[in-house]
Design goal:
about 450 residues; eleven-stranded parallel β-sheet; Spore Coat Polysaccharide Biosynthesis Protein SpsA, Chain A; UDP N-Acetylglucosamine Acyltransferase, domain 1; seven-stranded mixed β-sheet
Amino acid sequence: MTQPLTAVILAAGLGTRMKSTKFKVLHEIAHRPMIGHVLDAVARLEPERIVAVTGPDQDTVRAVLPEGIPSAVQDRALGTAHAVLAAKDHLAAEDGTVLVLFGADPLIKPETMAEMAAKRARGAAVVLLGFRPADPTGYGRLVTDDSGAVTRIVEHKEASPEELRIGLCNAGVMAIDRRHALTWLERIGNDNAKGEYYLTDIVALARADGGRVDLVEAGLDEVIGVDTRMDLAAAEAEFQRRKRLDVMASGVTLTDPDSVQFAFDTRIGPDSVIEPHVVFGPGVQIADNATIRAFTHIEGATIASGVTVGPYARIRPDTVVAEGARIGNFVELKKTVVGVGAKVPHLSYVGDATIGTDANIGAGTITCNYDGFQKSRTVIGEGAFIGSNTALVAPVVVGAGAIVGAGSTITRDVPGDALAVARGRQEEKPGWAERFRAMRQSVKNDPTTKD
């Protein structure tokens, strides 16, 4: 049974324990703000509406919300129920479910959210998310009856010795009957030591009105709430673990999975091989049968089928490498299109360039793409051969089939099938080296020259 769903994401946390000027939900997991992970997960449930609750000065948080997702402002930090109530304009009393999530809980799976919404739709007034930590110290305990329904939430400091032995704890995430959510939220009081309005009080109100409170249990990997840098590192590690498994399950070989780092949106085709210590930044798409060798960093690039990259290569944004090309060790590419079968084998920087089909770029070649004021483009034609240690001063075009002699500095266009050599004339002076050594040795042996 499905019902309309409203998702409320609480994102007003300041992140004081993060020791950061950045708001908590903007800290990134796999190059994506934590709230982005939550938004992506809940979007898979196709909710009727999503609203994020932010603080009054959190323009930077509101700026990362996708178009069409409104923000409700919590004017003062007076507790979780007060935060949800800030979204009251989006909580019409109608059939459906309100799913309350936290913007700094980035790893809850869509399947878990869906299970909570489905259980709520089957008649529960409230559905809580529970988990069983190895050490429950500090967590609120979920007290259940013989039928498995939750009768109350007991905070750790208020629990009896018997209640402290309960291993089932409250994760905070909650699915609420939308028909009654607003009424219950408005009835929650703040008669407590902190004077705050706690969302957990909704359990007692729902039960007092004859409603059943159910629960869904999640694994520990889903309920890593990020409050500190240590939590952030733990969440990153869990994301990477999941991503590696997904990538390998899709037909990709990771020769040393634990050393590879993925971005949230990395896409790799089957039969590709990723060697150790490869790092993917955001915006990377790799087709099938590619090989990414060890210690390579790729960001914002598209790599076609049959390409080999690395080892020790750096592929920067807006780079496209076509089928069968080879990018070798200690090569850096930036805003470069590499043609089919082209080779940049080693020790080169190629930026703001187009390399034609089957062209070969010799070791030590660089494109001089920046004059201190603006970037200019280099075009290398099909089948061209660029000799080692060449500097191509942009803007410049090397025609198809042209050859550039090693050690050249090319400042003018080279016609197709031409040879271009631009370097100083070599001269020899017979016996000069022998005379030089003798002169320097005599000076060294002269006691009047010693310090």
